Amino acid sequence: MTALTNLLDLDPAQLIAYCGELGEKPFRAKQLQRWIHQFGVSEFDQMTDLAKSLRDKLAGRACVRSPDIISDHTSADGTRKWLLDVGQGNAVETVFIPEENRGTLCISTQAGCAVNCRFCSTGKQGFSRNLTVSEIIGQLWMAEFELRRTKGIISGHRGERQITNVVMMGMGEPLLNFEPTVTALKLMLDDNAYGLSRRRVTLSTSGVVPKIDALSQECAVALAVSLHASNDALRDSLVPLNKKYPLAMLMAACKRYLDFAPRDFITFEYCMLDGVNDSDQHARELISLVSTVPCKFNLIPFNPFPESGLKRSGNPRIKAFAQVLMDAGLVTTIRKTRGDDIDAACGQLAGEVQDRTNVQERMSKQAEYQKKFGANFGRIVEIS
Ligand code: SAH
Ligand code: SF4
Fold first, then answer.
1. Residue-range domains of the chain with CATH
2. How far, in Å, from the CA of 124 to the mean position of ligand 2?
3. Could you tell me what percentage of the chain is helix, strand and coil, using 3-state DSSP and rounding each to the nearest 5?
4. Closest atom of ligand 2 relative to the 116 alpha carbon
5. Which ligand is nearest to the Cα of residue 116, counting in written order?
6. Residue burial 144-173, b: 16+ Cβ < 10 Å; e: rest
């Protein structure tokens, strides 16, 4: 028996081509796409405006399937976290953050991460593999329709949409899994799928410079850059990728991106680490670093995890740091920590069902993957 084609893997053009192979006209692909992505239907039998013959053909050779849910937790503040099985002992996390006027979904793009930032627990678990398109867009598909089901909303009209914003800020470095990430982004924006505006979809990167340029050409969504340091020596020690793409290159890439971006600023994320990157001097150095890049700052209080050896800056320090930036005219927000009672806060996404005995293998994959991108930028840490 041949494997079923998972229709969640196909972008709009590929779905048209697929329907063409079945002898169907392009508008059938649009109908099919709406059933899947706008109504959350996975059973072909329920796609009532498709001809019975097409439904039968699809039933024998295709499926609509997102990764299986391993666990589903809701935090006291309403944040909801799903742990998803992506096979071979790997799990990734998807987090929904409800707010008054919007619902944001934070999605993962890789199982583990090769970049291995010092303050990030995802990096500490090594790198397993890239997620496929169906595993990336499947997070949005699963979450949107799970949320509707939970609320008792069964039909799928636009006004009932639960997820209004998507951030690629979960596990993994999206720009090191470029093609599947871009295909998933295109589906998020497509009017026959989720129809999100480019301003409401944000990709966060640790700074893969050539891919920032590629993204500007292929699918320029809002861009967040994980800066975390005001000079190269410090950033080399926190975000090892900096050794390959240092700050001057990164700032130049940010400026180029703005010509194509849906917003007229870049968001710089800055994780506040006690005694490491949080002094007034660091803030002043930052101001001159970004002086030619229209930007906003988002300060993230560090979420500690046992093996990091790092501490969160105190609230007064974070506020003082923000004040220095604001006094220089930089819009600065301090990220509220959400969902930390269910380990859903930034950098706590560790896919905890992973089999610890595979650590060695994931660490060597991390090293291999780094080599593939032309640099040995990561420290390979031992996990006890
Ligand atoms: N790989 C991408 C996207 C995922 S990480 C990137 O690095 O941008 C999403 C954000 O969470 C990044 O800004 C990252 O630096 C931050 N982060 C990682 N670990 C963290 C931690 N322990 N506490 C607070 N923020 C963290
Ligand atoms: Fe990877 Fe981002 Fe974590 Fe760095 S912060 S290790 S790039 S997921």
1. 5-63 (1.10.150.530), 68-353 (3.20.20.70)
2. 9
3. 40, 20, 40
4. 6
5. 2
6. bbbbbeeeeeeebeeeebbbebbbbbbbbb
Please tell me the distance between residue 158's alpha carbon and the centre of ligand 2 in angstroms. 34
Residue 139 CA to residue 128 CA, distance in Å, equals 18
Catalytic residues: 93, 346
| Ligand 2 pocket: which of 117, 235, 269 to mutate (most atoms within 8 A of CB) | 117
pLDDT tens digit at each of 384 positions of the chain: 679 999 999 999 999 999 999 999 999 999 999 999 999 999 999 999 999 999 999 999 999 999 999 999 999 989 999 999 999 889 999 999 999 999 999 999 999 999 999 999 988 888 999 999 999 999 999 999 999 988 876 655 444 789 999 999 999 999 999 999 999 999 999 999 999 999 999 999 999 999 999 999 999 999 999 999 999 999 999 999 999 999 999 999 999 999 999 999 999 999 999 999 999 999 999 999 999 999 999 999 999 988 889 999 999 999 999 999 999 999 999 988 777 777 666 555 555 444 545 666 777 777 776 666 554 443 332 222
**57 CA from centroid of ligand 2 (Å):** 42
**Taking a C-beta distance cutoff of 8 angstroms, is the pair 173, 217 a contact?**
no
Q: What predicted TM-score, i.e. pTM, was given to this entire model?
A: 0.91
Residue 204 Cα: closest atom of ligand 2: 2
